[in-house]
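Q: Protein A?
A:
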Amino acid sequence: MLNAFDGLDDERRRTDAGKQIPNLASIGLKATNFDLRDFTPGNIESAFGYPGFLWVRGGNVFTLRMAMARFGLDQIVVDGLAANRFVYAGFSAGPACSSPAWQGWNCATPSKSAARRTATSASMDSQGSTVPSCRT
């Protein structure tokens, strides 16, 4: 999922998907790009289905969080993780969207630019998970 790149050029998205999907395949995971912009809040749950995992790429944490909230994927993720339906993984903004607190993320990612790019405002409440983060 590349929605942390919403508002950026499509070539960058294609290039990144062209790297992420083969990287996941190299460790035995079959992935496709799930772009929230292709759906509506009304059909997101049926489109999401029951994947074995959700890999969420980094980028702008506020852009990603707003997209997830706008389409209702945030609640689908919370419910799915609570029921142990799939694994939620990724890097940078991906796991940050499920962190238990938002204080400090604005130091790493500008929230105003995210609102301009996505032309929306959404709750910045956390999803309530605890996510470890490290640099490699």
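Q: Protein B?
A:
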Amino acid sequence: IIGNKVSNTAGSGIYLAQNDGAIVRDNKISNSSQQQSDITLPSGGLALNECVGCTVENNLITTSGKDGIVVVAPLTNTTIQGNTVEFAKQWGIQLRGAVSDLNVYRNLVKNSVGGIDVVSTSAITRTKIQRNVIDTTFRDGIFVVSATNSDISHNHVKNYPATYFGIRVFSGASFSVRWNTVTNAVASGGIDLVGNNFQMSDNTVVVASPK
């Protein structure tokens, strides 16, 4: 699915279900998901439902009424890289459900409610979130729940609310958080890790001092 222009949709701009091995590249999607609920089905600029071994790269997604890119499990061997998401009314990139062997590389999320969200009631394993830029959100920049044997590294998160964190991992284990930069012009949390066996090193956190 390459080189399409999609705009002004009630539901997802592009929606795939059980389409293993799909390549979604160089699409421009704007004003999508303006009406559809995402309670039962994923809804966003670009939505993948139960797709395995997919590549989502170099897409431009603006002004989604839900998430910019949303992928629902089972999710394995999938790469999301080089995408730009702006003005999403939920998460820029959301991945939910049972996740393994997931790579989230070099994406830009800007002026959206949330940055990158990976959440599951079951295990998330072998997930790499690397070299992404998250700029100006109203929630956490990167938020991961229930992950093991995973890595968050070389990301730059900036400009998020005082009550949130640049990077937040909840209920994690055997997890590395390295070489990230978190900057904020207001007093806020920097990096929050809850779990065990974390490797945290070489991060830079610069936030404003409380007044």
